[in-house]
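Researcher: Structure prediction, please.
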Amino acid sequence: MSFFLVLLSLFFFWVVMSSRKSKERLAHEKSILVERCREFISELVFEDSLCKESKKLEHYLFSSKFRSQILLEELITLHKSLKGELAYFLEGYYINKNLYKLSFSKVKSQNNYDIIEGLYELSELNAKVAIPMVIKIYKKQQESEMKNYFLEFLINQSPKEGIEELIKASTFLSDWFQIKVINILKDRNFIDVPKLSKWLKRGGSHAIFGCRLVAYAKKHSEEGELIGILSSGNDSLKIEALKTLVALEAKQTDELLIENYFNQSDLVQKEILLTLTQFDTDLNIGFLNKCKVAKERETRLFAKNAIRKINRAKKYFEVQPQANLAYNMTEKFKKVS
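Model: Predicted structure follows.
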C-alpha cells in the first residue's frame, strides 16, 4: 500500500513539473513571437513594402491560431497609439487579412469571456464589417449583462444604429453602463439622440437614461417633456428630470416648477427647491422666502439655507470685481518696485 502511495506521489510530482515546464516553454515562445510581431508590424506600417523574410514571417504567423492571436494583440496595442492614416491602415489590414474572423469566432462561442474579448477586439480595430453578424448573435443572446456588451460594441461602431437597438433592448441599464455609453457618444461627437418620449415609453432605467441623454446632448427642445414628467408617479424619474433641467440651465421653467411644487412628495419638493436655488431669479427668491415660513420644519430650514447660498453667491459676484482690481493694482506696484 505504501509503495503504491509513493508511486502515486511520484506521478503527481512528474505531472506538476511537466506542466510547469510546458508553461515556461510556452511563455518563452510567446515572448519571442511578441518581439517578432512588433518588428513585423513596424515594417508593415512604416516601410513601403515587406521584405522577403517578413513575407515568410507573415505566412508563419497566419499558419497558427496561437501565433495569429499574438499578432492581433500587438496590432491592437500599436493601434491605440496611432491616429489618422496609420490607424486606418492597421484597421484595413485587420479586415483584409481576415484577422477579424478570429475575433468573430470568439463572439460566436458559448464562453462569456471569449465573447467579451472578441467584441473588444472588433471594437478596438473598428470592424464595422462585423456589425450585421454581431446584431444576429445579439438578438439570440439571453443574458442581460452580456447583451450590454453587444450594445456597447454597436454604439461604438455605429452610434445611431446602436442607440436605436438600446431603446428596444429588454435589459436593465445600470448607472455604470449609462456612463460608459455617454462617454462613447462623447468620443464619437454624437448628439443626435432619439426623442425623450421614446425613452419614456420604455419606462424604468430607459426613462432615466433618456433624461441623461437630454442633459448630455443639451436638447433644450425637451424642456416641456421634462416638466411633464412631474405629473407622473415616479419620484426617481421626477428627480432625474429636475437634474436635467439644471444641466440645461432652463431658468425659464421656474414658474412651472413652482406651480407643480405643492402636488409633489417631500422628496421631490426638496429637489424642486434645490433646482430653484440653481435658477437665481426674483420669482424663485420670492418663493423661497415664502417657504421659510412653511409648516414643515425641514422645508423651512432648506429654504433658509437655499437663500443663504444665493446671497453668498451674489455677494461673491459683487465683491469679485473689486478683488480683481485690488489684485491688479498690487501686481503693478510690485513691477514698479
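Model: Confidence is low (pLDDT under 50) at residues 315-320, 322-337.
Researcher: Thanks, that helps.
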